[in-house]
Amino acid sequence: MIHGGGQTGTGFLSTPDGRRGWADNFVAHGFAVYVVDAPGRGRAQGHDQVGAVRPATAVAGRVCADGSAPAWPQAHLHSQWPGEGNRGDPTFDQFYASQVSSSVDAASVERAMRDAGAALLDKIGPAVLLTHSLGAPFGWQIGDARPDLTRAIVAIEPNGPPVYDVRFTPEPDWFDDADLARPWGVTRAPITYSPPAESADELSFERQERADGPGFVRYWRQAEPARRLPNLARLRILIVSGEASYHAPYDHATSAYFAQAGVEHDFIRLAERGIHGNGHMMMLEKNSADIARLLREWILATSA
User: Fold this and answer.
1) Are the CB atoms for 145 and 118 separated by under 8 Å?
2) Is 198 exposed, middle or buried (0-12, 13-18, 19+ CB in 10 A)?
3) Among residues 16, 33, 112, 245, which one has the fewest Cβ atoms lying within 10 Å of its Cβ?
């Protein structure tokens, strides 16, 4: 289990209101679980490859839209956070206490995590990588480095959308492009393409002419002919998106990017499986056990 930005592996150990976390949930159902901390954080905070760090910042507006920043079209659907979702609420304060500083150079962390994750798989053997948010590129990188040892990747609201970050703006526009965040499409550091690309400058991107529908971003994708992601194409991959999360407007973009790059995968919107009201931190929310069950069922079904 690989955590997201501003987090450590503790986010998988329990919920801020005291329920069983996903790590114990999976162990209770017969899985051997490894919970890691990315280089530069938590138990690995002394790592020497990550450089300067930025302090933990307020995340209330992303955990539960609280009016402190422009929201997103699906925000009003959020109903599963176990509390009010802002400072002063005991559950949120417990969650906020788990936030940690992180490197300002995310690409260096990707490279370090690629090496560390590959070394871990070399030690423990084949495994399923369950990633969350900013941890998703770590999963893509480890799977790319060790496709023979990566049984599957389960990406919970993967860091995205491809290429450019999204800036939320007031309605009716809702979205704008922010920084060039993932110059390799779905990663910041190099990943294997076919035909090969020696640098990110060799990749060519174009923007979708019109969004897939109301409430969705116009995403970036490769200009045709698109390069393939041959190592990731060998893996079983699941992308999961919550109904009310700030990822809801753009997780489909990562799915589309993979499809264009020849990576077959499953994309599950929780609402389409009858699981409603989830935000980005779904492993901590009131119905986290229901989502864990869905993930376990997918892992077991694709491993049969």
Assistant:
1) yes
2) exposed
3) 33
